[in-house]
Amino acid sequence: ELPTLMVSPAAPCPSITLTQDDLKKIAAYKAVEHVKSGMVVGLGTGSTAKHAVDRIAELMRQGKLKDIIGIPTSKKTHEQAVSLGIPLSDLDSHPVVDLAIDGADEVDPGLNLVKGRGGSLLREKMVESASKKFIVIVDESKLVDYVGGSRLAMPVEVIPFCWNHSLKRLVSLFAYAGCVGELRKCAETGKASVTDNGNYIIDLYFEKDMGDLNKASDLILRLPGIVEHGMFLGLATSLIVAGVEGITVKT
Ligand code: 5RP
């Protein structure tokens, strides 16, 4: 005769509501587990990456991480890292980065990204394309079926000279995808938002899928006056997604 299995009622569990910022922090902390002493680390920009930089500094203070060199991807991250005492360098002195950790605005199933809604896409792409590993950290709201399909902005950094001409040329490249574009403006001043590199940002919006992303990238970069775009294709080596159900890691 089989023994009767007694199951006691589950203990009442206090319900915890995780905010979007909690999820960003969870993803960031998980990624920082991959940072080891002696590494050159690409420090991302944005509210998610900020948690990673805080965590690296915390582990350094606790003596758990030593001899870290950070390569910041924006002036803002540079300031944060300096205030936390993280030693910094740049790609001129450290052309190979061991590991970069950064957030994203959109991530598709192939780990293609849209970045730059925070305006730092150029330095981010320079640092992350020089990294042996690039871990993307997001909360689950950033997952999309294909990049550019969210109807939210795909940023393009352009030189200020005749930016309106560049805007029109960009939009006409993607007329087939119902593209519209606008100059990004600073909410407080109403003037053009200026990047860390002294450039402007054109935000492109697509009504339909833009198709082959590599082809779209080539077309954009071939236009004179364009500095860089926010599609990060084939750069991410892993993805950490924090959701209310838990953490997912994709490599
Ligand atoms: C900045 C970026 C950011 O990584 C991206 O905008 C995500 O930001 P957040 O972590 O605040 O959601 O690309 O240029």
Automatic annotation (TrEMBL):
<comment type="similarity">
    <text>Belongs to the ribose 5-phosphate isomerase family.</text>
</comment>
<dbReference type="GO" id="GO:0009052">
    <property type="term" value="P:pentose-phosphate shunt, non-oxidative branch"/>
</dbReference>
<keyword id="KW-0413">Isomerase</keyword>
<dbReference type="InterPro" id="IPR037171">
    <property type="entry name" value="NagB/RpiA_transferase-like"/>
</dbReference>
<comment type="pathway">
    <text>Carbohydrate degradation; pentose phosphate pathway; D-ribose 5-phosphate from D-ribulose 5-phosphate (non-oxidative stage): step 1/1.</text>
</comment>
<dbReference type="InterPro" id="IPR020672">
    <property type="entry name" value="Ribose5P_isomerase_typA_subgr"/>
</dbReference>
<dbReference type="Pfam" id="PF06026">
    <property type="entry name" value="Rib_5-P_isom_A"/>
</dbReference>
<dbReference type="InterPro" id="IPR004788">
    <property type="entry name" value="Ribose5P_isomerase_type_A"/>
</dbReference>
<dbReference type="InterPro" id="IPR050262">
    <property type="entry name" value="Ribose-5P_isomerase"/>
</dbReference>
<protein>
    <recommendedName>
        <fullName>ribose-5-phosphate isomerase</fullName>
        <ecNumber>5.3.1.6</ecNumber>
    </recommendedName>
</protein>
<dbReference type="GO" id="GO:0004751">
    <property type="term" value="F:ribose-5-phosphate isomerase activity"/>
</dbReference>
